[in-house]
Amino acid sequence: MTTVTNLGFPRIGAKRELKRALEAFWSGESSARSLQDTASGLRERHWQLQREAGVDVPPSNDFSFYDQVLDAAFLFDAIPARYRALADAEPLAGYFAMARGVQRDGYDLHALEMTKWLDTNYHYLVPELQAGQGFALRGDKPLAEYRQAKALGIETRPVLIGPVTFLLLSKTTDGSRALDLLDALLPVYVQLLGQLKDAGAQWVQLDEPTLVQDLDEATRAAFTHAYAVLAKAARPKVLVATYFGALDDNLPLAASLPVDGLHVDLVRAPEQLDAVIKALPPGRVLSAGLVNGRNIWRTHLDNALVLARYAHGHVGSDALWLAPSCSLLHSPVDLDLEKKLDDELHSWLAFSRQKLQELRVLADAIDAPARAEDALAHSRACIESRRRSPRVHKAAVAARLAALTAADAQRHSPYPQRHLAQAGALQLPRFPTTTIGSFPQTLEVREARASNKSGKLSDVDYDAFLATQTEHCVRVQEQIGLDVLVHGEFERNDMVEYFGEQLDGFAFTKNGWVQSYGSRCVKPPVIFGDVTRPQPMTVRWSQYAQSLTDRPMKGMLTGPVTVLQWSFVRDDQSRADTCRQIALALRDEVLDLEAAGIGVIQIDEPAIREGLPLRRAQWREYLDWAVEAFRISASGVRDATQIHTHMCYSEFNDIIHSVAAMDADVISIETSRSRMELLDAFVRFQYPNEIGPGVYDIHSPRVPDKEEMLALLRKAAEVLRPEQIWVNPDCGLKTRGWKETRAALEALVAAARQLREET
Ligand code: GLN
Ligand code: ZN
Question: How many angstroms is it from 558 CA to the middle of ligand 1?
């Protein structure tokens, strides 16, 4: 019989029960005991749900209070010295201190660094390691969770991050090479595998997704060495799991590891199936990732079945497992809870639970075809309805895309000419000051939005409220003396959702939550169809704000790549095409803003960097279409209209060519924490256009004073031409309070003024 298995299940809970329990615990409203109870209940519920969906072997140890990489670091006692006293005294408090920092009882510890898990929007905590450090087993989380399931009569496969990926995704604080710690780490894996075997586990899953990345020889050797050591241990059978791409040049390595099974992602890389089958030694289990763990679409089962049958024909029932492409951590839990989506759209989707049911259908189709017939027919009908739907395909959009020419992605004149036209039109002082867009989203603002949404506050009253907020924001900026103003973005819930709600081709779920980090979840919009803009989206508020002041008002848009990157996207056309459609809708918005008298327009693209493919060889292609999409959205305007872009959380060294190719007149970036280090890439490249290097770290309630910002600006002025420099914070101010915002911006303006005098 063909086995259905799963690599990981979302732990947050269909209704974000874990989030609630965590936050109640952190705020002191509930006990550790009650948090443990919620966790244990969720695990039990999720195992049962997976079994009912038809999974033969669900995973265990995929649960986490915060993050699975942090769990591993904690389990291996990779605890940096600053947390150790607390972790020894109170393990749970120590664990959460590593996750979120702590300020109490004489402890003042900041959290571990957080970064994106490969190319996903999930953030993991980066273990901090040091040359010569030791590892030891601490606690028994994987064992305890295995036993919990076993007591319920469910045999699970414990999941651990693999030793090489663990080290590759860690950082060292002393400049040493993390991989040098491999020999110190392996005995802990050996010990843990032995314990799992003694507890009765038949298989363990070691996640090694870095096998789909470019690896140097030393790293490859580390894989070979690590698995040779593990092979000698008394252990359960080992499944090495790879996902998010093709093994490609690492396939011989992956296939040569002395383990018992290999999981491959056949959604991202179906073309690797044949090569994988040929490379795997006889008897090795092939876990075929056939259902997309990263998106919300119903699977094209007929296509998946072609792959499944092919694999079955070559490796046979005993050695074939069917699985999602990766852990379902990146998918929402259960589509059945979506009661508000229309039936048609609903029928096109599948969340975690439905994805597992799809795998069951595939397995049945192989083992007992008659049993799968109805389900396959139903699925086929849904796929067909989506393929033919006029809600998805709009002739006008296709025609517009087809008619795009290079000229559409090209401003009328080169930057130097535009600079002159803009200088004439805007009459700004040297070192002009501005902000990135949002001003404090106070409790009052959020409450007004919520009551409007629930119907308690009428649209008229809500509008009046927003107008008051906007006017107040404009007046404050005038008083502070900023040069280019913003309206404050009080009407926006979120920088992508706000646009998605106004564009056709987007849908929103009620419970489509996906964990972003810790207790934080996001609910990405679903881009299901060709994107069009039925009417202007931002013109009204920008125009209103401009009417209140003589100073230039900056229009504020989210860029096409960021909208794409932070949504669930279509799987029936390329990302590039979806991105171009969004770009065209934004282009119309840009032109409407210009026509309404807005002379400065910012198109935010904070997500460009995170869209980079895992393999370097694919960077060029991605960056080309991403830059092109930005340029399509920006290039319709006159020379005198100034286009800004904004990118935060970004390293620029290896993408500076593309950032320059965006050809925004002004770019603002986040540089204050790195003390202007992030500016180096621009300097080395001799970036020609204007730059606002952030001088105010908006992630902290701390108010920087004038001298501090002036020092940063002087640093920038040493390496940039004076007429290039703008003065602004790192990012939007929505998470800050008014008092600190005002004080910091006053100091920022004072710093710019002094720089004007000095230079
Ligand atoms: N304009 C947005 C704001 O100020 C930009 C947010 C972002 O870059 N993440 O909030
Ligand atoms: Zn930002």
Answer: 8
**Residues at CB less than 6 angstroms from ligand 1:** 436-438, 489, 495, 556, 604, 606, 646, 648, 731-732, 734
Please give the pLDDT value at position 106: 86
Ligand that lies nearest to the alpha carbon of residue 730, given by its number in the listed order:
2
Q: What tokens appear for 741 in the block?
A: 């915002």
Q: Which residues of the chain have pLDDT under 50?
A: none
Which residue is closest in CA terms to ligand 1's atom 1? 437
pLDDT at 557: 98
What are the catalytic residues? 699
- Given this model, what pLDDT does residue 447 score? 98
- Which pair of structure tokens corresponds to residue 480? 């502070």
Ligand 1 centre from 560 Cα, in Å?
A: 14
β-strand 114-116 against 128-129: which pairing, if any? unpaired
| Residues 6+ positions from 560 with CB-CB distance below 8 Å | 579, 580, 582, 583, 586, 629, 630, 632, 633
Which helix (DSSP H) or strand (DSSP E) does residue 240 occupy?
strand 237-241
pLDDT of residue 237: 98
Ligand 1 atom 4 nearest Cα: 732
The confidence score (pLDDT) of residue 105 equals 84
Q: Which ligand is nearest to the CA of 731?
A: 2
Two tokens, residue 53: 């969906």
Burial of 402 (0-12, 13-18, 19+ CB in 10 A): exposed
pLDDT at position 103 is 84
Residues with CB under 5 A from ligand 2 (ion): 606, 648, 731
Prediction pTM value: 0.95
CA distance 403 to 383: 29
Ligand 1 atom closest to the CA of 437, numbered from 1: 4
User: Quick one: pLDDT at residue 675?
Assistant: 87
Q: Are strands 285-291 and 320-324 parallel, antiparallel or unpaired?
A: parallel
Amino acid at 241: A
In which element (H, E) is residue 196 found? helix 182-198
For residue 732, report the distance from its CA to the centre of ligand 2, in Å.
6
**DSSP single-letter state for residue 322:** E
Residue 527 has a pLDDT of 98
Output the pLDDT for position 723.
Answer: 96
